[in-house]
Amino acid sequence: MKRILSIITATALFGFLIYAVTFQKKEIPVQKPGEVISTAAYARYFGAVPPVDKGVAYAFVIYFPSRKEPGKVVPFPFFTFDEGSIKKVAVERLLVGMDTGSYQGDFLNAPAGSRIVGLQEAQGTTTLTLSKEFGTTSDASKFVKAFDQTLRQFKGVSAVGVRIDGNAAPLPVQSSESDILQPGPPRLLGVTAMKDKGVKEVEEVDAFFDRPVDVKELKLMAHDGQQYEGDLYHSAFDMAGVLKPRNRSQFTERMPIKVRWKVVDKLGRQAEGNDVVSLEVKVH
C-alpha cells in the first residue's frame, strides 16, 4: 500500500483519479497509472523519477546554500501536484531551510520572518521580491545563488531578479554551474510514526530518506535489538520505507528507535547505516 506523503513541501500531495476512455460496450473505467514530470535539473542530479499511483506530479530541485562550503549550493529533490504554484513553493521551502535530521547545521538559514512579497514574470525574467527581514542577513549573496539556480530550472525562466521590499536597487545575481555541489550518498532523515486524529495507536512507522531510494534492507528495532514485526512497503515517491507494525501499541513519542538500513538511489549511489533516532509521532 502506498501513501502520498509530503516531507519537504507545504503543498498537499493528493492527486486526482484519471480514468481511461471506454468504447461502445459498458465497462468499468480503468484507472490510469500516475505520471511524474521532472525538470532537467532533477534528472541530472537524481536520475529517473519514481512512480506515483495516480495524478500528475512534478519533480524539481531546490538548491540550499551550504554553510560548510560558503558560496556553494546543494540540490535536493522535491515533489508537488500543483504545477501552477511550483516556483512559489520552491522559494518558500528554500526560505524555511533544511535544518533537519542528519542535515542539521549543514546549510544557512534565512532570517526569521523572511517571506515572499512578490513573484512576477515578464519576458523570460522572474523577479522575486522578499520581505524586509531578509535584508538583515549578511549571507544574502549566497541565498541569491540558491534562488537563481532554483528558479532557472523551470520552463520559460531565462533570468532571475531578486529584490528586497522597499529597496529600489536589486541584489546582484551571480551564479554558475560551478557553484553546485554534487549530492553525496543518500541519508536517513528520521523516523516518524503516523496516526489518525483521536486514535491512540499509530498506523505506520516511516523511515524517511533525503531522496527517492530503493530500500535493500530496513530493520526497525527496540533498544534491546529486538526487531519490530510487520509488513514493509515503499512510500509514494520512494522517499521512505513504511512499516505497518503488528503491535501498534509499542510506539510512543520520543522513544529511541534503532534503524539498520541499506539503500541505493536512482543513480546508483549506495549508503547504509546503523542509527539510533528519536521517534516523532504525527497526527494526520
UniProtKB/TrEMBL annotation:
This is GerMN domain-containing protein. Residues 62-167 form the GerMN domain. It comes from the Bacteria. The lineage of its organism: Bacteria, Pseudomonadati, Thermodesulfobacteriota, Desulfuromonadia, Geobacterales.
